[in-house]
Amino acid sequence: MPKVIIIPYNQVEKVCQDAMTFANSCQSDFTFYILPPTKKVTSILNGHTAEVFDILKYLEEQKLENGYEKDDLILTFYNGVLQASSHGLSNLFCAGSSYDDEYPCTGVISLKYLGWEVLEEKYNYEVQKHSILHLIICGIIGAYTHLQAHADVGCLLDMNLRLTSFNLKLRRGYYLCSANEFGCYDKIKTEKYGKAILQLCDRFKTNNYQTIINELIIGDKIEVGDISNNSGQIIIGKNIKISDTKRVK
User: Rounded to 10 degrees, what is the CA torsion of 66, 68, 74, 79?
Assistant: First the structure.
């Protein structure tokens, strides 16, 4: 049974605590834990800007130091600008590695999007909570499946090339697309931990966690570099996933 270890930032610690208690009650494949935010001033997690791979490497070291298993996911929040300079990417929402990538089962979520006016109701606690839970689910999907990113339909696997796409994802609520779209719902059922992921998606739609966003903001495109020659897997936007790093040109 893999552990999902969340390292929250101070402003989202209560949301993470409540979500982990809820998540442990509605499925039995994952056991969720919370680690306190690091207080070390020199920690990479306390910087203003960080490279994705530096944070993933740091999380891998934390896993080894604390005796976690390879398939235990350690997912941290980061209150800084997340970038992958070697790929021309900046202002990333989230990044991580899957169970068979370099730095396996590690992930980072940047909280900077809360200040980008991505969310229509920027100061609404329920909307922020809803967005944070989406990112946690995306971190789990990135760590334990090989589902591929696709065009935006409101699915958790959307590429999110436009900021407005993030709100579409929130409005649809932990949605995995149908066979008439890109078939993510059926595909995830075949994954080892697919049942637990679907249970989490379903339960987070309950009244305690569902938020209705009435209108979508009009946002500009996220500026990214030329990724057309990358052979690795890159998801742009909300659930940025950078994997297969050795194959990126």
Answer: 0
The residue type at 100: D
Give pTM, 2 decimals.
Answer: 0.80
Distance CA 80, CA 55 (A): 12
Spatial CA neighbour of 38 closest among 53, 55, 19, 20: 55
The correct CATH number of 3-247 out of 3.30.540.10, 3.30.70.660, 3.40.390.10, 3.40.50.620 is: 3.40.390.10
The domain ranges of the chain are 3-247
pLDDT along the chain (249 residues), means of 10: 91 85 90 85 88 94 93 94 85 88 93 68 67 90 92 89 76 91 96 94 70 33 37 37 36
